[in-house]
Design goal:
- By secondary structure, the chain is mainly alpha-helical.
- Among the domains are: 75 residues, no CATH class; 67 residues.
- 76% of the residues lie in helices and 7% in strands.
- It contains five helices and five strands.
- Strands 3-4-5 form a three-stranded antiparallel β-sheet, covered by helices on one side. Strands 1-2 form a two-stranded antiparallel sheet.
- The longest helix has 95 residues.
- The radius of gyration is 65 Å and the shape is rod-shaped.
- The mean pLDDT is 67.
């Protein structure tokens, strides 16, 4: 017998005597007096059964009170079903715990996926920005090279123009000069020596072309 969580031995009910010597059986807070007749055994057995039944009910009530502290549902259950109910509750608790853990795992997985997506998006934005910066840098570099080439080309064209002007002046001076051929050749040789190769070739070609032109003009005059 369990009373208050402790196992106690069930004591048999026995008749007691009061101060006057009368026999009785304690029934809860009441006393049931037994008749003194020797042939009244049925009544004694009946009283004993009632007392045992009351004690059993009292024990069950105490057990329910004890269970009510643990679970209100178990307090009104049949004692024979208590273990089964506890087992069901334990199973439900484990299932609930497993479900909660699964929900937490889903939430954690979702957060990880979201963070991964954010990280990928950030990396893509960084790569796009870096590519844009590299393209912009290449465009600026190409523009600088183009501008530099234009400046060099303009400078070269001006230099060629200056050289051409100087060459024409030199050829005119040579053709119109009244100096002797030896002196002109010496002066022209000194001039050609200081010139670059392309300019030197241009001067010689121009002299040859002007000389032929002068020669043709002279022939026409002679014919006339």
């Amino acid at each position: 017998m369990m009373i208050g969580g402790k196992k106690q031995k069930q004591r048999p009910l026995r008749g007691k005597k009061d101060k006057r010597g009368r026999r009785y059986i304690q029934h809860g807070v009441d006393r049931v007096y037994i008749r003194s007749k020797k042939n009244d055994k049925k009544l004694i057995r009946k009283l004993i059964r009632e007392a045992l039944e009351d004690e059993k009910q009292q024990h069950q009530q105490q057990q329910k009170q004890q269970l009510s502290k643990e679970s209100p549902v178990l307090a009104w259950s049949n004692p024979n079903q208590v273990e089964m109910i506890k087992s069901i509750q334990g199973t439900n608790f484990r299932e609930s715990l497993l479900k909660n853990q699964q929900e937490l795992d889903k939430e954690t997985k979702k957060k990880i996926i979201d963070l991964t997506k954010d990280d990928i998006q950030v990396k893509q934005e960084i790569n796009t920005r870096q590519i844009d910066e590299q393209l912009q840098s290449m465009i600026e570099m190409q523009n600088q090279i183009k501008e530099k080439n234009l400046l060099e080309l303009d400078s070269l064209m001006k230099a060629n123009q200056n050289n051409l002007t100087a060459t024409n002046d030199l050829v005119k001076e040579y053709l119109n000069s009244t100096m002797s051929s030896t002196k002109l050749s010496t002066n022209l040789g000194n001039e050609l020596k200081d010139m670059v190769k392309n300019q030197r070739i241009s001067v010689i070609d121009l002299i040859m072309m002007r000389s032929k032109h002068k020669e043709n003009e002279f022939k026409l005059k002679v014919v006339e």
